[in-house]
Design goal:
Blueprint: E1 6-15, E2 19-22, H1 23-31, H2 39-46, E3 50-53, H3 60-75, E4 84-88, H4 99-107, E5 113-117, H5 123-136, E6 142-150, H6 160-163, E7 168-178, E8 183-190, E9 198-199, E10 202-205, E11 208-211, E12 216-217, H7 219-240, E13 250-253, H8 258-268, H9 279-282, H10 289-299, E14 308-315, E15 319-326
Parallel strand pairs: 4-5, 4-6, 13-14
Antiparallel strand pairs: 1-7, 2-3, 6-7, 8-15, 9-12, 10-11, 14-15
Helix pairs in contact: 3-4, 7-8
The chain binds oxa(dethia)-CoA (UT7).
């Protein structure tokens, strides 16, 4: 392995479906099904104010391709230069082929490697760490790393404890080989003993769906574990990069609940003003939440070249991870 070969983010992009559903509108839609909830409960318990929901014709690969085109434009490179596409998703268009292959086809960029990563809400950090490793070992030079979901498809709209929490969308980054370090350190973890607290336990067998194709969650168990592991893996990756916590300019954790974001920042000693929060606008978009939040903060001018950004994922599996990135000047 070439010790001076690194990867760095050179462009970001995102995509959201057209239907922006406020809490008030969701309350109305759920009331029509006999499900009672309120804007007050959703805001107080989660910080969510709205979410974007895909219509029946919109797929993860379409949102992923749209986000990818934005990221390619920001990086100033053509899709045909891309030799690796990784899509993190738990709501792929098909059982197979992979969503990444569909994105590659949509972008007109055949020939490179393309595959999906299934690590639920940790999917994007798993995909980014994987792409970084592949670039550093010389297996790829220009990668698209994408998180894309149509989570609304796997929600039980009769379960108010989960259906108000999620939204749809996609976020993407271009990751390019460089002699200048961009991804400084990555750490990934999982503990399958907790697989039952957040799951969609269905599968296709003999042409029929076996089990339940809808999401179930023990919210409090997920909450407690999430706060603990996000703190631990954040510290682990900052130490691995040889930095101190005060040198982290921005913390971008998985956007599940504003209370988890605040608690994570507090535990790590990171001021709330340095925690990027988009859960209020997007709700929980699973694998898309971290790249969506990163793209928002890049485009609104908060995240700038030369800054250290700590990206963290956590969710079903139970799986979690973190990637510490030094943003490049042109991202
Ligand atoms: O992306 C993967 C990571 N996911 C997460 O990180 C989610 C982590 N968990 C959470 O964010 C929180 O646990 C929730 C937001 C899911 C729930 O918040 P909570 O403070 O743990 O509430 P709870 O589940 O203990 O429910 C409290 C009450 C219950 O009523 P009772 O039993 O106290 O009478 C629920 O029935 O709130 C009720 N409730 C609702 N009320 C109005 C649950 N959902 C709703 C709702 N509207 N949508």
């Amino acid at each position: 392995m070439n010790p001076s070969r690194y990867s760095r983010i050179t462009g970001t992009g995102s995509a959201l479906p057209a239907d922006c559903v406020s809490n008030a509108e969701l309350v109305r839609r759920l009331a029509a099904r006999g499900i009672e909830t309120s804007d007050e409960w959703i805001v107080e318990r989660t910080g969510i104010r709205q979410r974007y929901l895909a219509d029946a014709g919109t797929t993860s690969s379409q949102l992923a391709a749209q986000a990818a085109r934005e990221a390619l434009a920001a990086a100033g490179i053509d899709a045909t230069d891309i030799d690796l596409i990784i899509v993190a998703t738990s709501t792929p268009d098909f059982v197979f082929p992979s969503t990444a292959c569909l994105v590659q086809k949509a972008l007109g960029a055949p020939g490179g490697a393309a595959f999906d990563v299934q690590a639920v809400c940790s999917g994007f950090v798993y995909a980014l760490a994987t792409a970084d490793a592949m670039i550093r070992t010389g297996m790829a030079s220009k990668a698209l790393v994408i998180g894309a979901e149509v989570f609304s498809r796997i929600l039980d709209w009769n379960d108010r404890g989960t259906c108000v929490l999620f939204g749809d969308g996609a976020g993407a980054v271009v990751l390019e080989a460089s002699t200048t370090p961009g991804v400084l350190a990555s750490r990934l973890h999982a503990d399958g003993r907790h697989e039952e607290i957040l799951r969609t336990p269905g599968n296709v067998c003999g042409g029929a769906v076996i089990g339940s194709p809808l999401l179930t969650m023990d919210g409090q168990a997920v909450f407690k574990l999430a706060v603990t592991v996000l703190d631990a893996v954040g510290r682990e990756v900052v130490e691995a990069a040889g930095l101190q916590m005060h040198e982290v300019d921005w913390l971008i954790p998985h956007q599940a609940n504003v209370r988890i974001l605040q608690a994570t920042g507090r535990r790590m000693g990171i001021d709330p003003s340095r925690v990027v929060v988009t859960v209020d606008r997007h709700a929980n978009t699973s694998a898309a939440s971290v790249p969506l939040a990163l793209d928002c903060a890049v485009r609104d001018g908060r995240v700038r070249g030369g800054q250290h950004v700590l990206l963290e994922g956590v969710g079903g599996g139970f799986a979690w991870g973190a990637v510490l990135v030094k943003m490049s000047g042109d991202a």
